[in-house]
From TrEMBL:
GO terms for molecular function: imidazolonepropionase activity; iron ion binding; zinc ion binding. N-formimidoyl-L-glutamate binds at residues 146, 321, 323. This is Imidazolonepropionase. CDD domains: Imidazolone-5PH. GO terms for cellular component: cytoplasm. One of its GO terms (biological process) is L-histidine catabolic process to glutamate and formamide.
Length: 408
């Protein structure tokens, strides 16, 4: 079913409680949400519903909670194959970095992605997207980075765009050409960065396949100098940047990203105070990825106390990818962010709504229920929004409305 065939959500949603912007203090019990022409026309306590809407059709929400559609702001959803064998190698004692340096890791997914055609990549990614949608996700970021050649990166980004067109979720694409060094460039990382900046990005930006630019700044990825070149190229194309930073070590990537006005710096287990301060100054969102932390059995916690102290907005995401976070549950990530990172329930609610939307550079479109916005929301069979973070391995999502259509 495409959004166009789905039933209209126009009318008054009543017999519900509303969480407009993730702040429990602003929750509205016994609320009403009015949708007109697919947009939110009013929201507030049912008792204050303006007379002018009284004749609209009514949707009895059955006492459910309504939140903004959730936002998954960091995913690598489109790729070929899977890496269960590598998981087994890690269980037998090999480290993620050892596997990567031995030609496995990201590069093994690059091989599988290059071999797959667009139809295959689409067919494999669509059910993953559906699983996210079933948990109330209405906006998602999808990165390239498993092609590492112009044609193969284009293929991934075209599939991401097609998923956005047909699968009922808003898709923001990110070009991650600087994710790993492709084998044909072994020993020539600077030449590969030339290709990324001089050929791949210009072509893909011209084809309107790129909404943002990312890189992997790490010992097994690219240096801060190489990352800065990618950021400069993004700026020449007027594209915002973000960065995989401080995941396995501290190269100062977050501060570098902040200096380039990055939307977000992501992972951040090894972030230091200077990086936190730089992010606060630049308004860069910290995207924490508890799935990768868990799956790599990391023990180095991101510096949450410092992020709070400096007022850095924190988002939470699945980081869905075959190597470090093969999960399709954003709700599970909320739970893990609480249990593993000691985040609070209001923090993780903001982390998958308002702050995640900001990490996409789309705070005006996603993550908040507000008058004038497209009606993107999720309905939850819970007694309080805290239950979104409380259950794990259980999905209380009872319905999803996207662009004013009831798609689930
Ligand atoms: O976000 N850290 C780099 N990139 C991905 C993992 C990619 C992979 O192992 O395939 C991440 O964790
Ligand atoms: Fe990632």
């Amino acid at each position: 079913m495409t959004p166009h065939d789905a039933p209209s959500a126009d009318g008054i949603w009543h017999h519900c409680h509303l969480l407009p912007d993730a702040d429990p203090e602003r929750a509205i019990r016994d609320g009403a949400l009015v949708v007109v022409d697919g947009r939110i026309a009013w929201l507030g306590p049912l008792a204050s519903l303006p007379e002018s809407f009284a004749t609209l059709p009514r949707h009895d929400a059955g006492g459910l909670w309504i939140t903004p559609g959730l936002v998954d702001c960091h995913t690598h959803l489109v790729y070929g194959g899977q890496r269960a064998d590598e998981f087994a190698m890690r269980l037998a004692g090999a480290s993620y970095e050892e596997i990567a340096r031995a030609g496995g890791g990201i590069v093994s997914t690059v091989r599988a992605t290059r071999e797959a055609d667009e139809a295959t990549l689409f067919a494999q990614a669509a059910p993953r997207l559906e699983a996210l949608l079933a948990e109330g996700v209405t906006a998602i970021e999808i990165k390239s980075g498993y092609g590492l050649s112009l044609d193969a990166e284009r293929k991934q980004l075209r599939v991401a765009r097609r998923l956005g067109e047909t699968c009922r979720v808003a898709v923001h694409t990110t070009f991650l050409g600087a994710h790993a060094l492709p084998p044909e460039y072994a020993g020539r990382a600077d030449d590969y960065i030339d290709l990324v900046c001089g050929t791949m990005l210009p072509a893909l930006a011209e084809e309107k396949l790129v909404d943002a630019v990312d890189a992997f700044c790490e010992g097994i990825g690219f240096s801060p100098e190489q990352t800065a070149r990618v950021f400069d190229a993004a700026a020449r194309h007027g594209l915002p940047v973000k960065l995989h930073a401080e995941q396995l070590s501290n190269l100062g990537g977050a501060a570098l990203a902040a200096r380039h006005g990055a939307l977000s710096a992501d992972h951040l287990e090894h972030l230091d105070e200077a990086g936190v301060a730089a992010m606060a100054e630049a308004g860069t969102v910290a995207v924490l990825l508890p799935g990768a932390y868990y799956f790599l059995r990391d023990t180095h916690l991101p510096p949450l106390a410092l992020l709070r102290q400096y007022g850095v907005p924190v988002a939470i995401s699945t980081d869905h990818n075959p190597g470090t976070s093969p999960t399709t549950s954003l709700l599970l990530m909320m739970n893990m962010a609480c249990t593993l990172f000691r985040m609070t329930v209001p923090e993780v609610l903001a982390g998958v709504t308002t702050h995640a939307a900001r990490a996409l550079g789309a705070a005006q479109r996603h993550g908040t229920l507000a008058v004038g916005r497209a009606a993107d929301f999720a309905l939850w069979r819970v007694q309080s929004p805290a239950e979104l973070a409380y259950w794990f391995g259980r999905n209380p999502c009872a319905g999803v409305v996207r662009q004013g259509r009831v798609i689930r």
